[in-house]
Amino acid sequence: MFSSILYKEWLKIRRYLIIAFLLNLAVFSYLFISLRHLFVIEHAEMIWYQAFEIGTLHYTLIKYLSIITGIIIGAAQFIPEMIRHRFKLSLHLPVRPNALALWSVLIGLFAVAFISILDAFSIYAIISIYFPHEAAISALLTAIPWLWAGLVAYLGIALTAFEPQSSRKFVYLLITGGFLWLFYQSNDYESYNRAIWRLVALSLLFIPSVILPAYRYRNRSS
C-alpha cells in the first residue's frame, strides 16, 4: 500500500518538482555568473573587504528561494486534491487516515528537502570557487535558516490545505507566516548558529499537527 501512496504522490508533484528544480538551478546559475562578473569588474581586495569587513552577503539572491520551492510543491500536492475532494476518497482506503496523511506529507517533505540539500551543496561549491573554505562554510551556515524555511513553508501549506474550515485555514497561514518570519531576523553572517536547532525542533511539530485537520476533513467535524 505504501508503494501505491508513493506512486500517487509522485504523479502529483513530479512536474512541479522539475519546475522547482529548474528554478533553483537557474537562480544558482545566475548567482555563479553574477559573482564571476563581480570579480571581473571589481578588484578582489574590494570584494573581500565588502565580504569580511563590512559583512556584505553576496548571495542574498537565494534568501527566499527555498520558501518558493516549498510553496510550489505543497500547492501542487494538496490544493487540487482538496478543491476536487479527491483526498477524501483516499482517506477511505484500507490505511489509517493519520498514517495516510503523514505519509503524504513526508513524501512531499522529502522532495523539498532533496532540493534544499542540492541548494546547500550549490552554495558551498559556488562560494568556495571565489573565497576560501572557511568562507564557504560560513555561507552554508548562514543559509541554513533560509533552506529550512522552505520545509516549514511546505508544512504550512499542507496543514492549511487539510483544514476544512476557512477560519482555521487563516489562523494556520498566520502561524506559518509568523514562524517563517523568525528565520529572517538577521542579515549577518552565521547569526542563527546558536538558535537554529531550537527553531528546527519547534518546526518539526508541524508534521504531527496535520493529523487533526485531516481527521476533521474526513469527518467534516468542527
What does this structure look like?
The model has no long low-confidence stretch (mean pLDDT 87). It contains 10 helices and no strands. With 222 residues, the protein is an all-alpha fold. α3 (65-83) packs parallel to α6. It is elongated. The protein has one domain (2-219). It has helices at residues 2-41, 44-54, 65-83, 86-90, 97-130, 133-162, 166-181, 196-203, 206-209, 211-219.
Helicity range of the residues? over 70%
Number of domains: 1
The main sheet comes to: none
* Structure class: mainly alpha
What does the radius of gyration come to?
A: 20 Å
Global shape: elongated
* N- to C-terminal distance: 30 Å
- The count of helical stretches stands at 10
Number of strands: 0
Quick check: average pLDDT?
A: 87
Unreliable parts: none
Strand content: under 5%
Q: Which H/E pattern describes the elements?
A: HHHHHHHHHH
Name some characteristics of this structure.
mainly alpha, about 80% helix, 10 helices, single chain, about 220 residues
Summarize the structure.
It is built from 10 helices and no strands. With 222 residues, it is mainly alpha-helical. The mean pLDDT is 87.
